[in-house]
Amino acid sequence: MKRRVVVTGLGAITPIGNDVDSFWNALKEKKVGIGPITYFDTTEYKAKLAAEVKDFDPKNYMDPKAAKRMERFSQFAVAASKQALEDAGIDMSKEDPYKVGVAVGSGIGSLQSVEREYKKLLDKGPGRVNPLLVPLMISNMAAGNVSIQFGLKGKSINIVTACATGTHCIGEAFRSIQYGEADVMVAGGAEASITPIGVAGFTALTALNTTDDPLRASIPFDKDRNGFIMGEGSGVVVLESLDHALARGAKIYAELAGYGATSDAFHITSPAEDGSGAAKAMEFAIQDAGMKPEDVDYINAHGTGTHHNDLFETLAIKAAFGEHAHKVRINSTKSMIGHLLGAAGGVEFITCVKSIEDGFVHATAGLVNQDEECDLDYTKGEGVPMEINCAISNSLGFGGHNATLLVKKYRE
Question: In sequence order, what are the residues at sequence separation of 6 or more whose Cβ sits closer than 8 angstroms to the Cβ of residue 236?
């Protein structure tokens, strides 16, 4: 028998709030966290906007000496994990540490350390490169640092699937608990790639919107959409087996009931043009939960604001849901926080959990001129209070990676 899995803790570092309540309230208020890039001079760059995390001080979450041995993406991961563990009330002195694991991924790791040390290599030679370059840079250090900081000795993994990273990490953590490898998993994603090479690379790919208007920059499903805006941050949740949560009297936010993962096997950057891969991931998640498409009230779309993503995801939803596609409520959190790449799935899963808890679907901010080909209900205008019993979160990553999580109201 597969064990039931519940969500008991939430933690978030985002461009519109450095804790879950601030983030969620900002979403409800349609607060857009996009503005001019402050980390470097963008004079020669076409893309000049990003969704930066504001007022983040790692010393609020960890020892200053430990923070110095972490790059920004790892600091974000540790901060969000600390929030989630405290929210869940996990007391490691009462846990078997080998049954508490980590699945916190980063799509890229630290571009900052690569840029910094490569400049040293060119200017001063190989002998001046930081001895810690590799452990600062590699993407698994988000999971590694979370494990070290909190004494979590169970399974510790970093699934890297570009923009689907956070969703796959939560999905694989879910499976680990279902099949008894862990009682508790700290799961999600972290990213901090608003750097010269990161912005230049995505711009060269023509993936980023180059407008200078923050309110028309990340506009999923709008016919004027022209690329995504890079964001940064971390979204981490605590998952537990239901038995473990009940035994310790934990507050249960929701039940994670389904996970679907597929590959388009089509193109390195474009989703399959008929949406079939993403559709199948949604179908698998719904089947995994033992539910029907008609049971889903709300979809947090991948919704990046690129022409291909929004059109093909719309086709995918139609393929997976049939007639119900026109009745389900859809939105894109990226309309306010940009695209957090490997962290997107973690933050968007938290959005689904809060939507269920609060009975509210936030608006897709900036959606004004809805594309005729994107003809579903993307929550244009204002957010909508409504009862949500079941929600799904979609993530699609470069390389053709598709992942869907299904979360529902917890009932005994």
Answer: 10, 11, 12, 77, 80, 81, 83, 84, 104, 146, 186, 187, 188, 189, 190, 346
Contact between 218 and 209 under an 8 Å Cβ cutoff? The reply is yes
C-alpha 137/C-alpha 109 separation (Å) is 6
d(CA 117, CA 71): 13
d(CA 14, CA 149): 21
pLDDT values of the chain reduced to their tens digit, one per residue, 412 residues: 799 999 999 999 999 999 999 999 999 999 999 999 999 999 999 999 999 999 999 999 999 999 999 999 999 999 999 999 999 999 999 999 999 999 999 999 999 999 999 999 999 999 999 999 999 999 999 999 999 999 999 999 999 999 999 999 999 999 999 999 999 999 999 999 999 999 999 999 999 999 999 999 999 999 999 999 999 999 999 999 999 999 999 999 999 999 999 999 999 888 888 999 999 999 999 999 999 999 999 999 999 999 999 999 999 999 999 999 999 999 999 999 999 999 999 999 999 999 999 999 999 999 999 999 999 999 999 999 999 999 999 999 999 999 999 999 999 9
Alpha carbon separation from 382 to 35, 57, 221, 325 (Å, rounded): 22, 33, 15, 20
DSSP character for 12?
E
Q: Which of 307, 370, 348 is nearest to 27 (CA)?
A: 348
* C-alpha angle 191-380-366 in degrees, rounded to nearest 5: 50
3-state secondary structure of 216: helix
Residues 6+ apart with CB under 8 A from 79: 11, 13, 18, 56, 58, 60, 61, 62, 234
What CA–CA distance (Å, rounded) separates 361 from 352?
9
Positive or negative, the CA dihedral 357, 360, 365, 368 is: positive
Establish whether 390 is a catalytic residue.
Answer: no
Q: What is the DSSP string of 351-369?
A: HHHHHHHHTEE---TT--S
In the structure encoding, which two tokens stand for residue 27, read together?
């979403």
> Is the CB of residue 347 less than 8 Å from the CB of residue 334?
no
Give the active site residue among 163, 169, 352, 374: 163
pTM greater than the 0.90 cutoff? yes
Q: Are 24 and 359 in contact (CB under 8 A)?
A: no
Cβ atoms of 361 and 331 closer than 8 Å: yes
